[in-house]
Design brief:
The complex is a heterodimer. Chain A has 9 helices and 16 strands. Chain A is α+β, with helices and mostly antiparallel strands. Chain A is globular. The two termini of chain A are 25 Å apart. By secondary structure, chain B is α/β, with parallel strands linked by helices. Chain B has 2 domains: 127 residues, 3-Layer(aba) Sandwich (Rossmann fold), CATH 3.40.50; 52 residues. Chain B is built from 8 helices and 4 strands. In chain B, helix 2 packs parallel to helix 3 and helix 4 crosses helix 6. Chain B is globular, with a radius of gyration of 18 Å. Classes of the chains: A alpha+beta, B alpha/beta. Chains A and B meet through strand 15 and helix 9 of A and helix 2 of B.
Chain lengths: 360, 205
């Protein structure tokens, strides 16, 4: 579980340190202050050894494809990840973890021919390459991921060349699972069914059912049904037939996805962008209560963003009522060119809410 | 409808104890034609330290130029001043040694104790001093003397009770201290309010 996290030269952050992290962390702040970027940085860091995540995180913002052009003069496809698009400075992410200790991740774009020559064994210009080289200046686009942990360090490369994109050497699995749920991106049906299946195998599907009953009390069971070749979760609410979950509403799907993430990330991290989307304010306190319970049961750490004061108040009340206040509110504030974090513990948040001071 | 959460909207902020103090200060600020001063009430019996811990987290706190803290002396003016100083020190904010003597920068901090730093009492005492010459005050005092003679136990906070009785003599009775200030029932141009005006001018300068 992260205790603190430091970001350098990533997206809108020149430097940011967020401390006093708890099991459940809610991130507030105005538009374009870096809430989603913070989740992306955590996602990259959680992936530990896999530079491919640098491409994946763009998909969380709806940019599904990256156009990669080759040539020494062209823009790097990963330039948007770097603060002020300055690829000459490295991205540095440092996490302090309760059990694993400190892990540093450094991402840099390699364009210098001397540095590229050092990793030429990984550049797959093999003799059977039939693709015609069209320009003498064509070269691979390479991003280097260097990690340093308590007892080991190493490097992995993401290489994009005219033959495709690959990561070398093959990175090991990360030390713990991490899931990202975007604000507007929903989990594909197949993935949803697979993750539901994993929970069923562990006999944990009742946890899901109990929570979804908060929104739909008539729900008595969940089943995977193949519909037009897609495995779609259906619910039984006592009608003549089962209903597909999406028909029961956006809130049901969001909550279901969220719980699938937490349940499938034991000892890991779940990142949720704009958590309140699709959920009625009257349900928020109950849902936060459940998030707390499930996160504790699976030992999962949760980071969620919000713009909603109702969501913040609901979370505070839910954790206060549970008697285990493993919750923090962190607000990102922009001051001129820098972004800083303001963290609210239980007492500060309680006083702010009672006295009507703005916390968002 | 729930109140809109308070943001720091001005570069000079005064923290007061309750809603009536807020209304009183707003009226006096208006009377003095001062601008760019925001009055924030702590509310209830909340500790100043806890309120300051929340306030320093509000976006824009670092842009405050002057921070004023006004509170009642109650039974012990020295303890009241010490309480404010302890809270400021705990939060790492500038700590003035005495009332009405500003200290520090970013923000400049000023403390005001009602009625003053040597006298037990509260804002109500200041208001009663201000209307001492008002003919109604003779009747107010007589009323309480009468109660005493009749063996009625007087309220522990007698000045609060006197303010209520005095305000009962105005053209629109029933107002509380702050609303009365807004209605112009406290004569801001008398000597009794000199210190609180000085306090506001220090904040404003």
């Amino acid at each position: 579980m992260y205790q603190s996290f430091e970001i350098n030269n990533f997206r809108c952050f020149s430097q940011l340190t967020i401390s006093d992290l708890e099991r459940v962390n809610l991130i507030a702040g105005s538009n374009n202050v870096g809430k989603t970027a913070l989740l992306e940085a955590l996602f990259l860091h959680s992936g530990a050894y896999n530079p491919e995540l640098a491409i994946k995180i763009n998909a969380f913002r709806g940019i599904e494809r990256v156009k990669i052009e080759f040539g020494t003069w062209v823009e790097s496809p990963w330039g948007l990840l770097f603060h002020q698009l300055d690829i000459s400075k490295n991205i540095k992410l440092i996490g302090e973890d309760k059990t694993a200790g400190r892990r540093l991740l450094r991402l840099k774009i390699i364009r210098d021919p001397i540095e590229l020559a050092k990793i030429k064994e990984f550049l797959p210009y093999s003799s059977d390459n039939s693709r015609e080289i069209l320009s003498t200046s064509e070269s691979a686009q390479v991003i280097e991921l260097e990690f340093e942990e308590v007892e080991r360090k190493g490097k992995y490369y993401l290489i994009a060349n005219p033959n495709g994109i690959k990561t070398v050497p093959i990175p090991p699995a990360p030390p713990f699972p991490a899931f990202f749920q975007g604000a507007r991106v929903r989990m594909p049906f197949k993935e949803e069914a697979e993750r539901f299946g994993k929970l069923q195998l562990q006999g944990k599907e009742n946890v899901l059912l109990k929570v979804l009953q908060l929104i739909e009390p008539r729900l008595c069971s969940l089943k995977v049904v193949f519909f037009a070749d897609e495995p779609i979760i259906h619910g039984d609410i006592g009608l003549k037939r089962l209903l597909p979950l999406p028909v029961m509403g956006e809130g049901m799907v969001r909550l279901f996805n969220l719980l699938l993430h937490i349940g499938n990330a034991p000892d890991g991290v779940v990142l949720l962008d704009e958590i309140e989307n699709g959920i009625h304010h009257s349900m928020l306190a109950k849902i936060w209560g459940v998030i707390g319970e499930v996160a504790r049961e699976f030992n999962t750490q949760v980071f969620a963003t919000t713009h909603s004061l109702e969501c913040i108040i609901a979370a505070h009340k839910a954790f206060q009522e549970q008697g285990i206040y493993d919750f923090r509110l962190h607000r990102l504030d922009r001051s001129k060119d820098t972004i800083k974090v303001v963290t609210y513990d239980q007492e500060a948040l309680e006083t702010s809410i009672e006295t009507g001071l703005e916390v968002r | 409808m729930a109140e809109i959460p308070k943001e720091i909207s001005k570069s000079r902020v005064i923290i007061v104890e309750g809603k009536e103090d807020e209304l009183f200060f707003d009226a006096l600020i208006n009377h003095l034609s001062l601008s760019d001063i925001q009055v924030l009430p702590i509310g209830g019996k909340r500790e100043l330290r806890k309120y300051l811990e929340a306030l320093i987290r509000v976006s824009g706190f670092d842009k405050i130029r002057s921070l004023g803290i006004a509170r009642d002396a109650n039974s012990d003016p020295r303890a009241a001043l010490q309480n404010v100083k302890d809270a400021l020190r705990f939060l790492g904010l500038p700590v003035p040694e005495r009332t009405l003597i500003p200290f520090g920068d970013k923000p400049k901090v000023v403390i005001m104790i009602f009625p003053d730093e040597n006298t037990p009492g509260m804002l109500e005492d200041l208001c009663l001093q201000a209307v001492m010459q008002d003919p109604a005050m003779f009747c107010v005092d007589q009323y309480f003397q009468c109660l005493e003679q009749k063996g009625v136990t007087l309220p522990s906070k007698i000045s609060k009770a006197k303010v209520q009785v005095f305000l009962g003599s105005r053209s629109e009775p029933g107002k509380l201290l702050g609303v009365a200030a807004q209605a112009g029932y406290w004569p801001f141009n008398v000597e009794a309010f000199a210190q609180v005006k000085t306090f506001l001018q220090i904040i404003s300068s």
